[in-house]
Amino acid sequence: MSLSTQPADPRRDEGIAQPKLGTLGLLRFAWRQLTSMRTALFLLLLLAVAALPGSIFPQRSIDAVRTTDWIARHESAGPILDRLGFFEVYASPWFAAIYLLLLVSLVGCVLPRSKVHWRAMRSQPPRAPKRLERLAAHESVTLDGSPDAVLADVRAALTSRRFRTHSHDDSTVSAEKGYLKETGNLFFHLALIGVILGMAWGHLMGWKGDVIIPVGQTFANTAARFDTLSPGPLVDTANFEPFAMKLTRFDAVFETDVKGQGQFGSPRDFTAYVDFTKEPGAKVEKKVIRVNGPLETGGGTAFLLGNGYAPRLTVKDADGKVTYSEVTPFLAQDNLYTSVGAVKVAGAGPVGKQLGFAGLFLPTAVLDEQGPRSVFPDALEPALALSAFEGTLFPGGRPQSVYSLDTAEMTQLKNKEGTDLLRIWLTPGQTYTLPGGQGSITFDGVERFAGISIRSDPGKEVTLVSALVALLGLLLSLTIRRRRVFVRVAPADDEGRTVVSIGGLAKDDDEGMGEQLEDILTRLKERRT
Amino acid sequence: MTHETLASYANVSLYSAMVVLTLSMLGYAVYLAGLLPARDAAVESADAQDRELVAAGGGTVSSDASSDGAASPTPTDSEVPLRARKAGGVAQTLAILGTLLLFASAALRGASVERWPLGNMFEFGVASALFTMVVFVVWGLRRDLRWLGIFVVAPVLVLLGLANTVWYTEAAELMPSLKSIWLVIHVTVATISVGLFAVGFVVALLYLAKDRFGESRGVLRAVPDSRTLERLAYSLHIIAFPLWTFTLIAGAIWARQAWGSYWNWDPKEVWTFIIWVVYAAYMHARVTRGWRRQSATWIAVAGFACIIVNYSIVNMYFVGMHSYSGL
């Protein structure tokens, strides 16, 4: 496919006259159709169209919540589109079918062309046509000197212009240059295969894991320690690099200047300071992870992809015994870091008598007629707004999110008077005593957490190098011109002079061919004087 | 100078650029108006010459030369009325001045926020206008492009108007994920290639119009023949396409740094890829036997339509990680 500078293969026409194709013939016919330029072009356009829905509809792999929400809101269209793969476009069979066919078409086109080009590069330019004046660009001059001497200079002039020359007889020179055009073109297409292979390798051998690390806590790189882990099919999750990192400090800067629409409170800078140990017992290194500044850990790369707040909470029972004391991350829901989370006090009592708290963390809290909300993302006036529940925390042992309570088998506590549902409002240092001898909950303080994503993609280098080779090949194939020049010498009517006819043959439009011939003739004349 | 002063100078510079470019556009219009009668005269004299030669049994004139002559009777400069030539010259100078003012505006804006001035949609708009003008002006130094002036400057003015009204954003610092050297590399190259694609798109449209409505219809008489137009459009696209390829690669490298993965199927990524595929299809269509140049050029036009969608709809309405429109 594509931009070929090779002459059309005349053998392509064979077999057309055969009356019966047979199975083999039919296969060959199908293969030719698939590897033809028209098909490649059609598949390219189809690929562009097929990629479209993925940008319009939410994609499950990118935002599962929004996808589920979309399907729920579109009762009739949602499930149908879902079945057709519109929420998983880039993993859908029809998308794969298009790019795989394109890949096959590409291979089927590029490999034969590579063979043809390989031969062309090792062979000599073809014999000069009989009548050079029939070529689109041609010229004729008469010079002093014998035909042989002139021809030798013609050859020199062409060589100095990087032409490959060959004489099929005593009176002509055939010359050709610009082989790199087709070389670049082929490299471009072959490198695209490299890009795909690199992506596939990365998919099979790569993995990514996300973990939330509050300030002061340590993360050790084992599969179990991740909050979510998605390994490729060929990844051995038992053998991760044994590094560890302790988050010692997390800095967040937000815009405080009131200027520009929507700029107030915008994030400006996030920095995570970690104590990094390459393996147990190794020396502790002070490292920094920033947005745009990941940390290479050896077995992967650690990216800072999120952050938020983790209140330190203590729950005691009626006797004052501590039943829960943990730094509990709350997940930010908006740009003002209104965060949701849950406290699950499994040790508060037997199953059925367990305590749970759920609600909001507000970094700069305001409580007014609009309800509790945050007005700035930095922790200036932090507060917790919680509801309390009693009952069974993990009904049926079903998996559940750590940021929300499953209240299916829980009842919400009421206030002392029993008139209304209990609403707890806590600022740092405050303790709330629960009604009915249920104990107390204390908001000790608040830490920041860093959302770290650790990823390994062993295929990325292959993809990058292939992409750069493709770019280089593209540049060669678009800038270099393939040109053939033929020269014929004949003795002129007056003794001792020679008529030099020159003709040029180029692929496609070549405005510069005339200039090229002029240039060669000028060089030739320079040599003759 | 305070940042606010610099930002206000940037805006003054931008308004001045718009005034200058408007005058430049008027100049190009006067030039085209003067060029038309001159071209008609050139056609007539060429026809007359042909007739004479034919009458004299001039079989020596190859068919190639005569058809070329009829299709592109480029009047020599002296045949264009003096007033039109003056207007064309003034328009050219004003276009250069307007480009410099746009450059100054972008530079001042950058200085006022101490960062590369490509951080929101307003700044993209101004930069695209700037690079489109740079492409046109620089190319215009190499060949006579006065016929193209009005077709480039007018859309550039529309773009600047949109940037100034709909997309205007106060100068401000960037969010953390945009603070990277790759912003400079990736977005700048993207905008340069958009500038090239834009001029290529204008020439492609002129070619299609000329092909559709005939060589000597209305204002189309003033532009070069369709064969030349088609070639010019192609040559612009083959410069822009590798730059777009580079944009894609640089974007992937940056995505890996900032988001952890070089390809995330983010809407903007998808559209960048779609644009790349469409232009790749254009290049293929142009060398596919059985495909007419017109059909191929339509694909290039579709490519630019995708760029416009990518710039406007995707930025403003599609949810993704590239949501930096500043709106």
UniProtKB/TrEMBL annotation, chain A:
Transmembrane parts of this sequence: 39-57, 94-112, 186-207, 462-480
Organism name: Knoellia subterranea KCTC 19937
Swiss-Prot/TrEMBL GO biological process terms: cytochrome complex assembly
Start and end residues of each ResB-like domain: 37-517
Compartments in which it is found: Membrane
Major place of residence: membrane
GO CC annotation terms, alphabetical: membrane
Transmembrane helix is among the record's keywords: yes
Swiss-Prot/TrEMBL keywords: Cytochrome c-type biogenesis, Membrane, Transmembrane, Transmembrane helix
Pfam families: ResB
Protein name from the UniProt record: Cytochrome C biogenesis protein
Bilayer topology: Multi-pass membrane protein
Automatic annotation (TrEMBL), chain B:
GO MF assignments: heme binding
Region (Disordered) location: 58-82
Subcellular location: Membrane
UniProt biased composition (Low complexity): 61-75
One of the GO BP terms on file: cytochrome complex assembly
Transmembrane recorded as keyword: yes
Membrane protein topology class: Multi-pass membrane protein
Bilayer-crossing regions: 12-31, 90-109, 121-141, 148-169, 181-208, 234-255, 270-285, 297-318
Key words, A-Z: Cytochrome c-type biogenesis, Membrane, Transmembrane, Transmembrane helix
One cellular component (GO) term of this entry: plasma membrane
InterPro entries: Cyt_c_assembly, Cyt_c_biogenesis_CcsA, Cyt_c_biogenesis_CcsA/CcmC
Lineage top rank: taxon: Bacteria
UniProt KW Membrane keyword: yes
Domain Cytochrome c assembly protein: 131-322
Protein name per its UniProtKB record: Cytochrome C biogenesis protein
Source organism (scientific name): Knoellia subterranea KCTC 19937
